[in-house]
C-alpha cells in the first residue's frame, strides 16, 4: 500500500491544474454569462470548451493517442478528473459518447469504426446521445420495441426512444433496436449507430425536472439508415447480438468509473457554504458526514483502480458505487438546501444541483435495480 | 374528548375539495407558471367564505375558527392552489386584515403572489404594518416553483400599523406554520395519490411496477408519514382555536411532521415515477416544487424542532 | 372536535393515578428488588401485581363488569393505560390473553366459554400464551403444520410451536392446528385452547436476545386434548375455520390498540435522561423529534378511537400504527444509548429496553409484512 | 499510488483468518460468556506474532506497521475474538508495552478482559502509566456482551509511567479508534455473511426469504456500507503508519464509517433473521452484541464526526 502519488503524477496534476485555470478563465471571458449545458445556447458555449479540451489534449486522458487521447493511465484520468471538478469546469456535453458508447467501440468496433468514431467523439465533432429508453422500456431495458428491418443496403427504423439526454443538441444516437421480429426480451436486438439527420428521424426536445430542455424524444418513422451512414458501418458488434455488448459495457472499466472528484468538489463547496452562513453544530456534523462519504468514494475508487490494474474486473461492484454516489449527491445538496433555509427555493446553482441530484437514483438503472444486482450478483441471493 | 372534524367542518371541506377539483386542476396550476394565475378558483373560494372564515361575523366574515379553515387548507395544498391562501385566509384574516390577496413576509423574506397582491403585511419594528400595492417595491425572485411569482418586498410608504404587540405577531407566525402544515399534508397526499395511480398502470418486466415490493414499501412509508402528520395538524388547529397554552408548541410539531411527510412523499413519488416524473411534462413536478417551497416557509424543520426542544428542555 | 376530557374522565384519571401510586408502592415494598417479567421469579412477583390489579378492578378496564371488567369506554381504557405507563408499572404478564385471545373469545366464544375463560384471564388465574409460530412458520402463518386429529371425546395433538412468549410460565396455550390433513395454507385450521399440563405437551423455555427465558418451545407428542379440558370446549369458533377468527381479530378494536402512553412514558424518561447528561443540541433535537412521534401516535390513537366510536372499524390501518410504534420504540432507545455513550453497554433498564425494542419490527407480523399490507390493502397496489 | 494490501499483508491476514476459523468459532465465543475465554486462539495469535507486529525487531517483535496489523484485526472482529486485541496489539504495543493481555482505559471507562489481563495501561494526569494486576482494583460491570468480562479499573499502586507526552497519548487513542474500526468492519461482514446464508435457506411463502425484494435491499444496504468503510479503515492504517498529518482525522473517519457499517449490518441481520435471530441460541447475538460494545469504545460516532468537523471547519 502506498498512497503517495509519484513525482510524475504530481507533475501531471500541476500541469492539469494550470491548464484548467488558464483555459477556464479564457473560455469564461469568451462566452460571457455561462448558460446551462442543457439548452441550445449553453451547448454552443460548451462546444467551445470541448474544442479547447481536445486541442489541449485533455478530452480523453486515458485513451490511446492515436484516437485523440493522452495515453494516460487510469491514475492520470483520476487525477485529471479531480482537478477538473475542483476547478469548477462544466459537465461534459460529450459524456454519453465518451462514457457509455466508447467502451463498446473499443471492445466491439471494427478497426475502421474505431478510427472514424473515436477521434470525432473526442473532438466533439460528433455529439452522441443514448437511445436505450423507450416510453414503455425504462428499468426493463430488454423490453425495447423500436424495430430495424433489414433492406437492401441498410435498415428501416421504426419506433420511439425517449428521455434521451441532450438529444435535441446531438448529431448521432447509439441505440438498441429489435432486428429479429420473432425475438423477445434480450435476444434479437442490434446495437445501431444513427445520424440524427437521417430522413424519417425526428427529435423533439422537452423539459427535464429543472425546466431545461435536457431530454428529447426521438421518433423513427420508416427512416432509412444506410449501411454506410457511419463510416465503418452502422452496426456495432454483431446483428441480433446487442445484449452481449450491453452486458460487456457494464463490466468494463472505462467510462463507468464515476469520478469521485465531482463529489469531493461539491462537498468542499458545501463546507464553504455552511461556514459562510455560520451553520449550527448539527449542520456542521451533517456536512462532515457527507464529506466523509465523498472521501470514502474516492478511496474506494483508488481501491478499484488498483484492483483493475492488477488484472481484476469491475463487474457488478459498480452497482455499489452507483448507489453510493447517487445517494451522496442528494445528501450533499439536501444539506446545502437546509443551510440556505428560505433562500433554498431560489432557482440558482444549488437548487439546480439539488434537482439534478434527484435524477441520480433513477438514471443508469434505478437504485432499486442496483440493489437487486448487489443482492443477487454480489451477495448471491436467490433471484 | 372527540378528535375528528365535525359534520359542518367536513361539509365545508368537501365543498372546497369539489370546487378545487373542478376549477384548479393541474392545467390551472400550469397557467400560473406562465403568467398571472387563473383568478377563478380563488374568487370561488372567496365567494364560499374561505378567505373570511376567521373574520368576525360583524365584519362580514364567517366568524368561525381554525378548525374550519385547516381542512380547507389541506385541500388548497392538494390542488397546489397558486395563491398564498395561508397568508390571506389564516394570517391576515386573524389580524383583522382583509383584502382579496394579502401577502406577508412574516413567514420568510421571499413572498409569493407579489405581483398580484393588493395588500402587504410586513414585519416592522417588532410589529406588523399593512401596505398597499403602491406603497411597496418588489425585487422579483426566480424560484424553482415558478407559480409562486415571488419577490422580496420593501416598504416605500408609511403603511398602517396593524399591531405592535409581539405576542400577536408570534401568534400570527404560529398560524402561518399551521396553515402551511395543512397545505403540506394535502400536497403529500396528492403526490402519493398520483403515484399510486401511476405505479398501478406502469408496466415493466411484465407486471405493474406497483407489484414490486420495493415500490410498495416506498409508498407505504409515505402513507405512514401522512397518517401521523394529519392528526398533529388537526390538534394544532384546535389548540390555536382554543388559545391553549401549548398552541405554539403544537404548531411547531404540526409543521415539523407535515414537512417530513411532504419530504417523504415527494421523494418516493419522484423515485417511483422514474424518468417520466423527472420532466416538466408530468404533472407531478407542480406539486413537488410547491412542497419544496412550503417546507421552508414559516420555519423549516430545524427551526420548529428547536422550538419544541426549547419547551421540552426548558 | 373537542380535545378536552370531561370532568368524569378527569376524575377517572385522578382515581387511576392515585390507585397506581399507592398500589405500586405497596407491591414494590412487598417484592423487594423487581425482577424481569420474563423469568420464573419475576413472573411470580408479577402475579401478585396482577392480583392487585384485578382486585382493584383495573385489570381489564374496557371489559363488561360481568367478566371482571370495569365496563369502561375506550377513552377510559386509554386514560388508564396512559397513567399505567406514566407510573412505571410493569408490563402485563397477562397481555397475550387479554390483547390477542380475548377479542376472539368475545366475538367467537360460546356463552359458556366467555363465562369461564374471560374472568379467569382477567384475574390471571389462567395465564395464556400464543401458539401460532412454528419452526417453519413465522411470517407465513398460513403454513402451520402442527396437527390435531379428531378422536373420540377429543383431539390428538402433534407438532411443535416456538418463540412462544413466556410459554414456560403460562398455564394455557391458544393456537392454530391443522385439523383437515388434506388441507393446505389457511384452510383446514382449527383454533384450539390447550392446558399446558396436558400429558404429551412439553414446554422448554429458552433465552430471548436479552438472555431472559422469555421464549418457549412447546412440543405436542400424541397429546390427548379432551373436549372438556377447557370448560365450554377446546375449540374456539368452528372446526377447520380458524382463519376467519384470525382475520376478524386483526380487524377488531379491542387489544389491538397499542397504548400510546407507553411511548409517551419512554419519551419523558428520555428527556429526563438527556437533560441529566447535559446532552448537546443534536441529542436534544433528536429527542424532541422522538417525543413528537410519540405524541403523534397518541393523537392518531385519539382519532382512531373517535372513528371507532362513530362506528368505523380499524381494519388494515392497524398496520400503519404497528410500523410507527415499533420504529419509534427503537428510535427512543437508540437516542438513549447515544446519550449514555460508553455506559450504553451496561446491562440495565435502558439496554434491556433497547433490546426489547428491536423485537418490535419482528413480532406480530414483521414490518416488511406490515408494509405489504399498507401498500396492498390501504393504498390498493396490486399484489 | 497503490491502494491495496501487499502480498505479505494478505498472507499474514489469511493465516490469521485460517487460525481463527479453526480455533475461534462461535462455540469458543460462547465459552467466554460462561467464564474465562479459551486461551488457545489468543496464544496462537501470539505465537504467530500478531501481538507484536508493532514491536521493534530489536525488542523481539515483528517490527512491522499498522498496515500489517489492521487486516488481522478485521479477522479478529469477524471471529468476535473475546480478548481485547486492539488494546494489546495496537495500543499497548505501539507504546512499547508488552505482555500477554494488556488492557487500557484510554478507549473508555469500561475495560474488557479485566479479570484475566496481566497489564493495565491507565490514563494518569495527561499521560499513561502501566500497572500490574495486583496494583489495580476492579469494579466488575455486567455488560450486554458478557464475553467482555468488563470492569471499571482503579489504580492502587504507583505504576510505571509509560509516557507523559500528550501527543503520544493522542496517537494511542487514534490507534485505538483504528483498531476498533477494523474489528467492526470484520464484525459487519460476519453478520452479513451469516444472514446471507440464512435467508438463502429459510423458506416462507414457498420460497427462500432471500428472494423477497425487501430482504434483498436490506442486505444490499449493509453490503454498500461495508464496501465504503473498508477503504477508510485501510487508509487510516496507512496514514498512521506513515505519520501523515491527516492521521487523526483519518482514524476518526474510519471509526465513524465502521461504526455505521456495523450498525447497518447488525440492524438488517437481526431483522432478516426474525424471531430465530432474537434468541441467545442463535449465534448471531454473539456478533451483534460485540458490535454494539465496540461502536462506543474509543469514541462513538458523534465524537468522531465532531473531530472531523473540527478539521473541516477549523
What does this structure look like?
The complex is a heterotetramer, with 2 copies of chain A (about 375 residues) and 2 copies of chain B (about 325 residues). Helices cover about 45% and strands about 15% of the residues of chain A. Chain A is α+β, with helices and mostly antiparallel strands and about 375 residues long. Chain A folds into 3 domains: about 5-95, Butyryl-Coa Dehydrogenase, subunit A, domain 1 (Orthogonal Bundle); about 130-240, Butyryl-CoA Dehydrogenase, subunit A, domain 2 (Beta Barrel), CATH 2.40.110.10; about 260-380, Up-down Bundle (Butyryl-CoA Dehydrogenase, subunit A, domain 3), CATH 1.20.140. In chain A, the strands form 2 sheets. Chain A has a 4-stranded mixed beta sheet. Chain A has a 4-stranded antiparallel beta sheet with strand order 2-3-7-6, with no helix packed on it. In chain A, a hairpin with an 8-residue loop joins strand 6 and strand 7. The longest helix of chain A is centred in the C-terminal third of the chain and has 29 residues, at about 280-310. The mean pLDDT of chain A is about 95. Chain B has about 325 residues and is an alpha+beta fold. Chain B has a domain at about 165-310: Butyryl-CoA Dehydrogenase, subunit A, domain 3. Chain B has helices spanning about 5-25, 25-35, 40-50, 65-80, 85-95, 165-200, 215-240, 245-275, 285-295, 300-310, and strands at about 100-105, 120-125, 125-130, 135-140, 150-155, 160-165, 205, 205-210. Chain B has a 4-stranded mixed beta sheet with strand order 1-2-3-6, covered by helices on one side. A two-stranded antiparallel ribbon of chain B has the order 4-5. In chain B, strands 7-8 form a two-stranded antiparallel ribbon. In chain B, strand 2 (about 120-125) and strand 3 (about 125-130) form a beta hairpin. In chain B, helix 4 (about 65-80) crosses helix 6. The mean pLDDT of chain B is about 95. Chains in contact: A-B, A-C, A-D, B-C, B-D, C-D.
Amino acid at each position: 500500500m502506498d498512497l503517495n502519488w509519484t513525482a510524475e503524477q504530481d507533475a501531471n496534476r500541476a500541469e492539469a491544474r494550470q491548464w484548467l485555470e488558464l483555459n477556464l478563465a479564457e473560455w469564461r471571458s469568451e462566452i460571457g454569462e455561462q448558460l446551462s449545458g442543457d439548452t441550445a445556447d449553453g451547448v454552443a458555449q460548451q462546444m467551445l470548451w470541448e474544442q479547447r479540451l481536445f486541442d489541449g489534449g485533455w478530452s480523453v486522458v486515458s485513451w490511446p493517442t492515436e484516437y485523440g487521447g493522452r495515453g494516460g493511465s487510469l491514475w492520470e484520468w483520476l487525477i485529471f478528473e479531480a482537478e477538473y471538478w475542483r476547478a469548477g469546469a462544466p459537465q461534459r456535453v460529450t459524456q454519453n459518447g465518451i462514457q457509455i458508447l466508447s467502451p463498446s467501440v473499443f471492445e466491439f468496433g471494427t478497426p475502421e469504426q474505431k478510427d472514424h468514431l473515436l477521434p470525432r467523439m473526442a473532438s466533439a465533432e460528433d455529439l452522441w446521445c443514448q437511445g436505450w429508453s423507450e416510453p414503455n422500456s425504462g428499468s426493463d431495458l430488454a423490453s425495447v420495441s423500436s424495430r430495424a428491418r433489414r433492406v437492401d443496403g441498410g435498415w428501416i427504423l421504426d419506433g420511439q426512444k425517449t428521455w434521451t439526454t441532450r438529444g435535441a443538441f446531438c448529431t448521432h444516437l447509439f441505440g438498441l433496436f429489435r432486428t429479429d421480429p420473432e425475438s423477445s426480451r434480450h435476444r434479437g436486438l442490434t446495437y445501431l449507430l444513427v445520424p440524427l439527420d437521417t430522413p424519417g428521424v425526428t427529435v423533439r426536445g422537452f423539459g427535464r425536472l429543472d425546466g431545461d430542455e435536457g431530454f428529447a424524444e426521438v421518433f423513427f418513422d420508416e427512416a432509412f439508415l444506410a449501411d454506410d451512414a457511419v463510416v465503418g458501418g452502422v452496426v456495432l458488434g454483431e446483428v441480433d447480438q446487442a445484449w452481449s455488448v450491453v452486458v460487456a459495457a457494464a463490466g468494463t472499466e472505462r467510462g463507468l468509473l464515476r469520478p469521485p472528484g465531482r463529489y469531493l468538489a461539491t462537498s468542499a463547496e458545501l463546507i464553504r457554504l455552511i461556514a459562510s452562513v455560520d451553520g449550527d453544530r448539527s449542520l456542521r456534523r451533517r456536512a462532515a458526514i457527507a464529506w466523509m462519504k465523498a472521501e470514502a468514494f474516492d478511496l474506494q475508487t483508488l481501491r478499484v483502480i488498483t484492483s483493475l490494474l492488477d488484472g481484476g474486473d469491475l463487474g457488478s461492484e459498480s452497482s455499489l458505487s452507483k448507489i453510493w454516489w447517487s445517494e451522496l449527491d442528494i445528501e450533499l445538496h439536501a444539506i446545502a438546501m437546509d443551510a440556505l433555509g428560505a433562500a433554498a427555493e431560489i432557482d440558482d446553482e444549488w437548487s439546480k444541483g439539488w434537482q439534478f441530484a434527484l435524477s441520480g437514483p433513477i438514471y443508469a438503472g434505478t437504485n432499486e435495480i442496483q440493489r437487486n444486482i448487489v443482492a443477487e450478483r454480489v451477495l448471491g441471493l436467490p433471484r | 374528548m372527540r378528535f375528528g372534524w365535525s359534520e359542518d367542518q367536513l361539509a365545508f371541506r368537501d365543498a372546497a375539495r369539489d370546487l378545487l377539483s373542478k376549477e384548479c386542476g393541474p392545467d390551472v396550476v400550469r397557467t400560473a407558471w406562465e403568467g398571472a394565475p387563473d383568478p377563478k378558483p380563488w374568487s370561488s373560494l372567496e365567494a364560499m367564505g374561505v378567505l373570511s372564515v376567521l373574520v368576525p361575523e360583524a365584519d362580514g366574515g364567517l366568524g368561525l375558527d381554525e378548525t374550519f379553515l385547516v381542512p380547507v387548507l389541506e385541500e388548497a395544498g392538494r390542488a397546489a392552489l397558486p395563491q398564498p391562501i395561508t397568508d390571506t385566509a389564516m394570517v391576515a384574516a386573524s389580524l383583522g386584515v382583509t383584502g382579496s390577496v394579502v401577502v406577508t413576509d412574516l413567514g420568510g423574506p421571499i413572498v409569493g403572489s407579489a405581483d398580484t397582491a393588493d395588500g402587504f403585511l410586513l414585519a416592522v419594528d417588532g410589529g406588523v404594518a399593512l401596505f398597499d400595492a403602491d406603497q411597496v417595491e418588489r425585487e422579483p425572485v426566480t424560484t424553482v416553483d415558478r407559480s409562486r411569482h415571488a419577490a422580496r418586498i420593501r416598504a416605500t410608504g408609511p403603511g398602517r400599523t396593524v399591531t405592535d404587540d409581539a405576542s400577536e405577531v408570534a401568534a400570527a407566525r404560529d398560524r402561518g406554520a399551521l396553515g402551511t402544515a395543512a397545505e403540506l399534508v394535502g400536497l403529500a397526499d396528492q403526490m402519493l395519490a398520483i403515484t399510486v395511480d401511476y405505479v398501478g398502470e406502469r408496466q415493466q418486466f411484465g407486471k405493474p411496477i406497483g407489484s414490486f415490493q420495493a415500490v410498495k414499501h416506498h409508498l407505504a412509508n409515505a402513507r405512514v408519514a401522512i397518517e401521523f402528520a394529519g392528526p398533529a395538524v388537526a390538534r394544532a388547529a384546535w389548540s390555536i382555536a382554543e388559545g391553549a397554552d401549548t398552541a405554539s408548541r403544537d404548531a411547531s410539531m404540526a409543521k415539523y411532521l407535515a414537512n417530513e411527510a411532504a419530504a417523504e412523499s415527494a421523494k418516493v413519488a419522484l423515485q417511483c415515477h422514474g424518468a417520466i416524473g423527472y420532466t416538466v411534462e408530468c404533472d407531478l413536478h407542480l406539486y413537488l416544487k410547491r412542497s419544496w417551497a412550503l417546507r421552508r416557509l414559516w420555519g423549516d424543520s430545524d427551526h420548529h424542532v428547536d422550538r419544541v426542544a426549547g419547551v421540552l428542555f426548558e
